[in-house]
From TrEMBL:
<feature type="domain" description="Peptidase metallopeptidase">
    <location>
        <begin position="38"/>
        <end position="176"/>
    </location>
</feature>
<dbReference type="InterPro" id="IPR001506">
    <property type="entry name" value="Peptidase_M12A"/>
</dbReference>
<protein>
    <submittedName>
        <fullName>M12 family metallopeptidase</fullName>
    </submittedName>
</protein>
<dbReference type="GO" id="GO:0006508">
    <property type="term" value="P:proteolysis"/>
</dbReference>
<dbReference type="Pfam" id="PF01400">
    <property type="entry name" value="Astacin"/>
</dbReference>
<dbReference type="InterPro" id="IPR024079">
    <property type="entry name" value="MetalloPept_cat_dom_sf"/>
</dbReference>
<dbReference type="GO" id="GO:0008270">
    <property type="term" value="F:zinc ion binding"/>
</dbReference>
<dbReference type="GO" id="GO:0004222">
    <property type="term" value="F:metalloendopeptidase activity"/>
</dbReference>
<dbReference type="InterPro" id="IPR006026">
    <property type="entry name" value="Peptidase_Metallo"/>
</dbReference>
Length: 240
C-alpha cells in the first residue's frame, strides 16, 4: 500500500490543485520536466521574504530554511527570513495536506493567511522533500507530471478510486491535479523531467510498470530550469 501525503498548489482562483506528493516506498527516480507560468515568476534579482505563521522551534526553522535554500544557488533571488512581520511567503505547519501558492500568486493572499502549508510532519522522511517541492511552487514552478510530453499512462479509474478513498478527492480534483494543465498556453516549458522534485510519484496510478517514484532532491533539470527562469546577473566588468 502506498502512503501518499497530499501536496497541492493553491491557485488564485481558489481552485486548489492537490497532488499526492509523498510515497513511502519511493524510489525509482523518474523525471518530469519543469514548467511554470511567466506571469507568476518573481522579478529576477528581487528579494523574497518568508516568515512563519506561528511559533516554530529554531531547529525546525533552520531545517525548513535549509530546504528553501536548496534552490538558492540556481536563481538570482535573495531569500530572507523575516520575524515579526509577514513575509511574502508565509509558512504554516498544520493539517495533513501540503500546498503552496504558485509564485507571485502569494502576493494576492491576505496577510493573515499562509501562502504555504506544510502538512507533512517533521518526523516524516518526506519532510525535506516536501519543503523543497512546495518552495518550487513558491518560485512559480508547476507540477512536472502535467508537462505535455509526460504522456503518463494514467489508470484514471485507479487514480479516482485511490485518491478518492485516501484523500477524499472528487473526480474533478483528480482531473485538475493529475491530468489537466491549467492554462497551458501561458505555461513555460523546459524538458520533461521524471526526476524533478516537482513530479508526483505515479506508482499504482498508471498502467504498466514504468512508474515514477518519489524524487527526494532537486534534479539537474530542476536546477537548469530555475536558472533559465532566474538567470545569472551580469555585473559587467569589474574595474581593474
Ligand atoms: Zn506540488
Amino acid at each position: 500500500m502506498h502512503n501518499y501525503n497530499l501536496v497541492r498548489m493553491a491557485k488564485p482562483t481558489d481552485n486548489f490543485e492537490r497532488l499526492p506528493e509523498n510515497n513511502n516506498d519511493a524510489p525509482a527516480v523518474r523525471r518530469k520536466r519543469s514548467l511554470g507560468y511567466t506571469t507568476k515568476f518573481w522579478e529576477n534579482a528581487s528579494t523574497i521574504t518568508f516568515s512563519f505563521m506561528h511559533d516554530v522551534s529554531d531547529e525546525l526553522k533552520y531545517r525548513i530554511e535549509l530546504g528553501i535554500r536548496k534552490w538558492e544557488p540556481f536563481v538570482s533571488l535573495a531569500f530572507e527570513l523575516v520575524e515579526n512581520v509577514p513575509g511574502m511567503i508565509r509558512i504554516a505547519l498544520q493539517g495533513k495536506d501540503s500546498y503552496s501558492f504558485i509564485g507571485t500568486d502569494a502576493l494576492k493572499v491576505d496577510f493573515n493567511e499562509p501562502t504555504m502549508v506544510l502538512g507533512t510532519t517533521p518526523d516524516s522522511p518526506l519532510f525535506d522533500h516536501t519543503v523543497q517541492h512546495e518552495f518550487g511552487h513558491a518560485l512559480g514552478f508547476h507540477h512536472a507530471h502535467l508537462h505535455p510530453e509526460a504522456r503518463i499512462p494514467w489508470n484514471k479509474e485507479a487514480a479516482y478510486e485511490f485518491l478518492g478513498k485516501q484523500h477524499g478527492w472528487t473526480r474533478e480534483d483528480v482531473d485538475s491535479n493529475l491530468f489537466e494543465l491549467e492554462s497551458p498556453h501561458a505555461a513555460v516549458f523546459g524538458d520533461y523531467d521524471k526526476l524533478s522534485i516537482m513530479h508526483y510519484p505515479t506508482t499504482n496510478l498508471i498502467y504498466g510498470n514504468d512508474a515514477v517514484g518519489l524524487n527526494l532532491t532537486l534534479s539537474d533539470k530542476d536546477k537548469a530550469f530555475a536558472r533559465k527562469i532566474y538567470p545569472a546577473l551580469n555585473y559587467g566588468q569589474l574595474p581593474a
